[in-house]
Amino acid sequence: MHSYLRAIGFGKLDKESDEEKFLDETFCDYTHREIAKGENKTAFIQMYKEYGPNMGIIICGSLDENGFHRQYYFPYFQGAQVSTTEELTIEKRVDGVSYAGVCEDARIGVSIIFFVQNIAEYRRESILSSIFHRKMSATLTGLSSGGVILFPVKKDSEQITHQQKSTAERNQLLTAAKNGDEDAIESLTIEDMDMYSMISRRMHTEDIYSIVDTFFMPYGIECDQYQIMGNIRHCESVINSATDEKVYQLGIECNDLTLDICVNERDLLGEPEVGRRFKGNIWLQGHVNFE
Description:
The protein is α+β, with helices and mostly antiparallel strands. 25% of the residues lie in helices and 42% in strands. It contains 5 helices and 14 strands. It has helices spanning 16-28, 119-132, 157-178, 182-202, 208-211, and strands spanning 32-37, 43-52, 55-64, 67-77, 88-92, 99-104, 111-116, 136-150, 215-218, 225-239, 246-254, 257-264, 268-269, 277-290. The chain has a 5-stranded mixed β-barrel with strand order 8-12-11-10-14. A 4-stranded antiparallel sheet has the order 1-2-3-4. Helix 3 crosses helix 4. The longest helix is centred in the middle third of the chain and has 22 residues, at 157-178. It is globular. The relative contact order is 0.19. The mean pLDDT is 85.
């Protein structure tokens, strides 16, 4: 049973037969589907079934002369805004049928790895993109297995302006360092040492979450799972049409990166509101956009 089904409102499934019921419903009464050329004279098909605004279940499989063969399924949540326009690399995962997206975004400081949602569309469009050199962007979303709501860090306008300026300067240094600029590498090293010293000093008298207001870091052994903390810029509660469970859809700003998060009300501690912060674990997904 997929562990992130609860994030879109299937938190009370406790039997495999209950899960199969919704998978059969997705197969027989899908909202829409995408088709791409498969291997060995087969077609690759993705069937989408919505169970609430921008969220639902996707079934993936192959179609041949003997009928449809389900390969795997996963819950999905579609975001509303482009998260990154950095260069993307799309690769097949170890299982050979799903795909992972990778991009280097200076705002995060680590490689962002996400599970690609629109595989059939990518298979079709990637051929044209390679011919016409079209650029790709990604709309990132996260399904959360649990999280907490924190109060924001109080800042005045001068502090916000200074932070934005510092972030822009650091991003420029990171870009230069990635291109081999030794002066930029040295500046970043000194800056990191100063930051470590400052945090170590302040931790004696302050809470860590008042010093660090956002972060984005790998979590666990899976490459597309992260622990994040970010500011809530948008908050909406929706109901799963099949289970009547309440789900929160949050727009998060984390290290200047924007992404949307979906989390079950039962797995969220605290009341989400715009201006507060979300901290939790997510499975990162991405919808690849083609220009």
